[in-house]
Amino acid sequence: MNKPIARLFLVALVMFGALLVSTSWWTVLRADDLNHDTANRREIIRAQKVRRGTIYAADGSAIARSTRDDEGVYHRTYPQGRRFGHPIGYSYVSLGQTELERERDDDLTGLTNAITTTFDQLIGKAREGDDVRTALDPKAQQLALDEIARVGQSGAAVALDPRTGAVKVMASAPTYDPNTITDKKVRNAALQDDKNTPLVNRAVQFGAAPGSTFKVVTSTAAIDTGLFSPQSTINGDSGVKISAVPLANDFNQDFGPIDLRTALVKSVNTAFAQVGEKLGKRTMKRYMERFGFDRKPQLDYPKDSMSASVVAPNPPGHAVSPTSRFVDVGRMAIGQGGLQATPLQMAQVAAAVANGGKLMKPHITTRVVDRDGRTVDTLEPQVQSEVMKPSTAAAVTDMMVGVVQSGTGTKAQIPGIQVAGKTGTAETEFGAKINDVWFIGFAPADNPRIAVAVTVKGVVGFGGDLAAPIARDLMDELLK
Amino acid sequence: MSARNRELFALIPAALLVSAGFAAVFLSRDDLLGGLSGNNQVSNLSLTYGAIFLGLCVAAHLVLRLTLPNADPYLFPLAALLASFGLVEIYRIDDGLARLQAQWFVIGLALFTATIVLLRDYRKLERYRYLIAIGGIMLLLLPRAFSPVNGAYLSIQIGSLSVQPAEFAKIAIVVFLASYLRDTRQLLVTAGRRVMGITVPPLKHFGPMLVVWGSAMLLLFFIRDIGSSVMFFGAFLAMLYVATDRLSFVVVGVVTFGLGAYLVAGHIGHIADRIDAWQDPFNPELLNRLQGGSYQLAQGLWAQADGGVLGKGFGQAVLRLSGDPNCPTLASSTVNCSLLPAPHTDFIYAVIVNELGLVGAAGLLCVYLLLVQRGFKIAMLARDSFSKLLATGLTAVFTLQVFVIVGGVTKLIPLTGVTLPFVSYGGSSVLANFVLLALLLLVSDRARREAELAT
C-alpha cells in the first residue's frame, strides 16, 4: 500500500502549494488593490493611531500638528489657521488629504520609515510619522494675504529663494481655515463659493494672462539668441499692426524709435510685439519651455492640483503649442494672446534671471526629520534648467533694475536695496477697465536672495500702482 | 541519538517560540485598539502560561519516553510548536481565551496520556468498529438537537461550554473505515466487475461504502456544513484509494460527492450564501448584509493584504473598531462591530497573516506539511494493513482540515466552520487533535519497533 500513500503525500503537497499560492495572492499580488479599497477601513483606523508628523515653518513654528486625545486617537490641528491653508492643505480621516499634507503623506505617516530592525518588526513598534520642515515664512505669508485683501478680492503671491528654489511665501487669497473645514456648513459654503473659490490655490492653479511681466521672457529670448541687445532699436509707436491688427501701447503713447532697454523700462507693447514677431514662434517656444512653461511645475505638491502655464488662444479655445498657427506670437510676446501663467511660473521667471540664468527646482519642503531629530531626507537644491547665459541674465537684470528705478515699477523701490522687477497689467474680459495686475521681481539686484511674483485679480488700476507695493513690502520683509 | 532524545531537543524551538512570542506581545501591550476584551492590564499570571505549557510538554515527553520509546521523534514537537504558536496568538487576541485554551491543553495532554496508556494495543479498536462507527455518526448528528451557529449544526452548548462533537467523530469514523477497509480491500478489487473500464465492486461490499457516501450527504443535509462533509468524505476516499490502489474509485467518489453537494447545497440557504460570498466578497450588497453576508471573509482578506509579505508585527493586528461602546466583548463579534469577526477560531489564520505576513504564514504551512509528512511516513512504515490505513486516515483528515479552513480564509474555496488544528481556540478541537496525535504515535511506535525487530 505504500505507493498510493506516497502519491497521497504528493497530493497533500499540491494542496499546501495551492494554499501558499492563495495566501500570496492576497498578501502580495492583490495587496495594493485591497489596501486602497475605500471600503477597507484598516488603513484609516491605523492612521488614527499614528502620530502624524508636524509641519514646521522656517522659523520653527508649527503649521500642522497632531494632538492625541485620551482614546489614543490623533486629531490634526492647524495652529496658524488660515495663514497656511494654502499651500499646506489639510489631512483628515473623514476628508482625505490635500496640498502639501497629501504630497508628503508618506513621510508624515511614517510609511517611508524603513523598518530598521527585524526586532522592531516583530514587536510591531508603533509607526511614527516624520516631521516636515518647510521654508515658509509666517510673517511674510500673512503680509501677502493682508495686502492682497486690501487691494482686491482675490490674488496670489509667491516668493522663492532664487539660489535654492525654496518657497518662502505661497499665498492665495481668499483662503480658508483648515481647522473649520471639517464642519459641513463651512465646507459646503467654501465649495459653492464660485466667485472667491477659497479652496483653490491660485499660486499654482488656473493661470491668467501675465501681461507685460511676460516681456521679461521675451527680452531673455531676444538677448540670449543674440538677435537683440539692450541697445537694439525698435519702433515704439502705438498702433503698429501685429498680425494685421493694430496694437496699442498703454495710453496710446507713441515712443518713436527706442532701444530695447527703454522699451522694457517703459513697458512698450508695440516694441515687444515686434521683437516677438522677429524672434518667431520656435524661439519663443524654446525659451518658454526653458522657463518651465507648458509643463506642470516640479514642485513637491500634488500634480493634479497644479496647472501648467500654457498659451490657449481663442480660437481654438484650448491650450496649444506656442508654435501653433492659432498663436499670435506678437501678442503672446507681451503676455496676452491667450497666455495663462500661474504666479509660481512667473516667480520662476524672475528667479531664473536672478540666479544668473540657472532656474532651480521649487520646493516647499526643506528637510524631513524623524521624531528623534535625525534628518531623514534633505531636499538639496537642484537645477531645473539652464534658461539663459549668465551674460543675458546680467543684461536683463539691468533692464529690470531700470524698470524699478525710472520706469513703471517705481513703487517697488526699497530704500537702500536695489530692486529689479517688471510690472504687468492684463485686461480681463470683465470690462475695459478691470485688470489683473502683476509684479515680478527680485532683490537685491546684485546678489539676489528673493524672487517674487504678485498678482491681484479684477481691480481697477495698474500693476505698477497696485501690485508693486505689495511686492516691495514682501521683499522688504523677507530681506530683513 | 535515540528517538526520544531527538524529541527533547526538538522541543526547544517550541520553548523559544513561546518565550519570544509572549515577550513580543507583552512589549506591544500598550496598543489601545487591539485586544477583544479591551483589557490592557498585563497580568503576571499571563506570563506563566508559557512556562506551564512548556512544563506540560516536558511531562508529555516523559510519558512518551516511558511508554513509546520508538515513536516518531518529531511528531510531538511539531504539534507542540503549533500549539504554542496558537497559544501566543490567542493570548494576543484575548487574555481570558488564552487561559482557557491553556486549560484545554492540560486536559488534552491528559487525554493524550490516557490514550497512550489505554490503547497501547490499539488493534483492540477493531473489535468495536461498528460500535465506534455508530457512535461517531451519533456524535455528528447530536448538534441537530441544538441551535445552529451561522446556519450550521456543529456545536453543542453545555452551560458556558461549547463542544464540537464532529472533532471526535472524525477519529471514530477513520478508525471504523480503517478496520473495515482492511477486511474488504481485496474483495473490493478482485471480486468486482469491470463496467466501462471502471471496477465496480460487488454490492455486498460496496453497500457499506454507499452507506458512507449516503452518510456524508446526510451530514451535509442535516448538519449543513460542507467543510465537515468534505473532510469526512475526503478522508474516506483517501483511505479507499490506499486500500485498493484504484484511482477510479476516487474519481467516482469525487464526482458523486460533487453532484450530491451541488444538488443538496444549492437548496440550503446559508451554504448558497457562503458560495455567493466566496465568489464576490467585496460586493457592497454582500458586505453590508447582516446575516449571511461576506463581511467576515472580506475583512479577513483585507487583513491579509494589510499584512503583506512581512506582516505588521506581533500584536499589531487591528481587531476592533475604535471607540465603539457597543462592542466591548468577544460575544459582540457581529458585522460592523468587530473589524475581524471570530479572530480566535475561524479567522486566526487571517490574524497570523496580518501580523507575521506571508513569511509567517508560509512557516506555519510548512510546519503543518511536516506534520503531514511524518504522518504519511508512519503510515508507510507500519507493517499491518489496519495500522497503515489508520495512520493514512488520520493524516488525511488532518490535511483536509487544514486545507479546508485555510482555503476558506484565502478564498480558495467557500468558507466553512472548521478549525485550524492546534492553533485555533476550541476545547473539542484541542482534545480531539491530541487524541489523533496519540494514535499516530502509537502506530509509529509499533511500526518502528517491529521494523527494528525485523532487522
Named CATH architecture of the domain at 138-365 and 380-478 in chain A: 3-Layer(aba) Sandwich
Approximately what portion of the residues of chain B adopt beta-strand conformation? under 5%
Low-confidence stretches of chain B: 31-43, 321-337
Task: Write down the secondary-structure element order of chain B.
Answer: HHHHHEEHEEHHHHHHHHH
CATH homology group of the domain at 138-365 and 380-478 in chain A: DD-peptidase/beta-lactamase superfamily
Radius of gyration of chain B, taken over Cα atoms and rounded to an integer in Å: 22 Å
The order of strands across the largest sheet of chain A is: 3-2-1-6-16-17
First-last Cα distance of chain A: 93 Å
Task: State the helix count of chain B.
Answer: 15
Largest interface: A-B, 49 and 64 residues
Tell me the overall shape of chain A.
elongated
Helix content of chain A: 25-40%
Broad structural category of chain B: mainly alpha
Give average pLDDT of chain B, whole number: 78
Provide the structure class of chain A.
alpha+beta
Descriptive account of the structure:
- The complex is a heterodimer of chains A (480) and B (455).
- With 480 residues, chain A is an alpha+beta fold.
- Chain A has helices at 2-29, 31-36, 42-49, 85-88, 99-103, 105-108, 118-123, 138-151, 184-192, 215-224, 260-265, 269-291, 329-333, 343-354, 390-406, 463-478; strands at residues 55-56, 62-68, 74-77, 91-92, 96-97, 131-134, 154-160, 167-173, 233-235, 240-242, 245-247, 257-259, 310-311, 339-340, 358-360, 365-369, 375-378, 383-386, 420-427, 434-443, 450-460.
- Chain A has a domain at 138-365 and 380-478: 3-Layer(aba) Sandwich (Beta-lactamase).
- Chain A is built from 16 helices and 21 strands.
- In chain A, the strands form 7 sheets. A 6-stranded mixed sheet of chain A has the order 3-2-1-6-16-17. A 5-stranded antiparallel sheet of chain A has the order 8-7-21-20-19.
- Chain A starts with a helix and ends with a helix.
- With 455 residues, chain B is mainly α.
- Chain B has 2 domains: 1-118 and 291-455, no CATH class; 122-267.
- In chain B, strand 1 (156-158) and strand 2 form a beta hairpin.
- The longest helix of chain B has 34 residues, at 348-381.
- Residues 31-43 and 321-337 of chain B have low confidence and may be disordered.
- The chains are: A alpha+beta (480), B mainly alpha (455).
- Chains A and B meet through helix 1, helix 2, helix 3 and helix 7 of A and helix 1, helix 8, helix 12, helix 13 and helix 14 of B.
